[in-house]
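Entry: TIGR04211 family SH3 domain-containing protein
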Amino acid sequence: MSISLHLSALLSRLALAKSRRFIGAGLFGALLMAGPVNAQESSSNTRWVSDSLNTFVRSGPTDGYRIVGTLTSGQKVELISTQGDYSQVRSESGSNVWIPSKELQEVPGQAERLPQLEQQVAELSEELKTIDDSWKVRVQGMQETLDSRKALIDELDSRRVALETELTEARSELRSTQARLGDENKQVLMQYMVYGGSIAGVGLLVGLILPTLTRGRKRNDRWF
């Protein structure tokens, strides 16, 4: 009867341990999913449940073998063989034990990956900061280039306006000069016409008077 009680107690402890392991695994998954969401709502009194959960290991590949120890969640082990639902692994201490295959994974645990993720986040943050600083420098250079080009455009526009004003004044002066030149040409033409007419009149007068004088001299010569 004492053997039966001992077996019953052992089975009860095993069932309790297995239920505690499942509950712990469920809590661990829930914390992983809810952690990033609730992190922003934390206060000075808020705490998180530790993810250092333990898994029982046995001396053989079935549930009938005795429990010989525990492995911590995320602990690194070496796979030796697989039989049924169990896998034989070698722990970091060198012990060969059997663990349910479903409790093994091919990627490192959260405890091992977290520092790597933090390092990657730090590297990415530094890279983003470098990119941001580089873009700030480039934007500042582009802004300075735009400012200098705007100043050059404003200067060229001012010069264009000044040249247009000078061109307008030159055209106005050219028209005035052309008008004065036209008046002067008319006056010169009138003077030429007057001089020509005067010369023609004098020539005509000389042509009329000269024959008369010549005939008078001839008559006087005959009288003597």
